[in-house]
Design goal:
Layout lengths: L1 E3 L2 E3 L1 H22 L6 H22 L6 E4 L2 E4 H19 L10
Antiparallel strand pairs: 1-2, 3-4
Length: 105
C-alpha cells in the first residue's frame, strides 16, 4: 500500500493508473503529431496532462466527461487527453528545430 496526499493505493491500482496515463499520453502525442520519447515520456505526459486538464476544466467550469474511477481516484479522460495535448504542443514548439531557408540567387 502506498499513500499519496492521504489517498492509499495498492500496487495494482498504481499499475492501472500508469497504463491509463500511458494511453492518454500516446493519444495526445498522436493528436499533436509529435513524440518526445517512448513509454516513460508518454506516462509522464499523461500524468502531467491529467493535472493540466483537470485544472483547466475546473477553472473554466466545464463538466466531467468520460470519468474513469478506480479505487478512490477519479480521472476525466477527455480533460486528461486535452491537457496532455496542450503539454505536447508546447513541447513540440520548444524542441523542434527551426528550419532555415536559403535564398537561391
Amino acid at each position: 500500500m502506498f499513500a499519496i496526499n492521504g489517498v492509499t493505493f495498492s500496487l495494482v491500482e498504481i499499475l492501472v493508473w500508469l497504463v491509463v496515463a500511458a494511453i492518454c499520453g500516446a493519444i495526445a502525442e498522436a493528436l499533436v503529431g509529435f513524440s518526445p520519447g517512448g513509454l516513460l515520456a508518454s506516462i509522464a505526459i499523461g500524468l502531467v496532462g491529467a493535472f493540466i486538464g483537470s485544472w483547466l476544466a475546473g477553472a473554466l467550469g466545464l463538466p466531467a466527461l468520460l470519468t474513469l474511477t478506480f479505487g478512490d481516484v477519479r480521472v476525466e479522460l477527455v480533460w486528461t487527453i486535452l491537457g496532455a495535448a496542450i503539454l505536447v504542443g508546447l513541447l513540440s514548439l520548444l524542441r523542434r528545430p527551426r528550419r532555415r531557408y536559403r535564398r537561391v540567387a
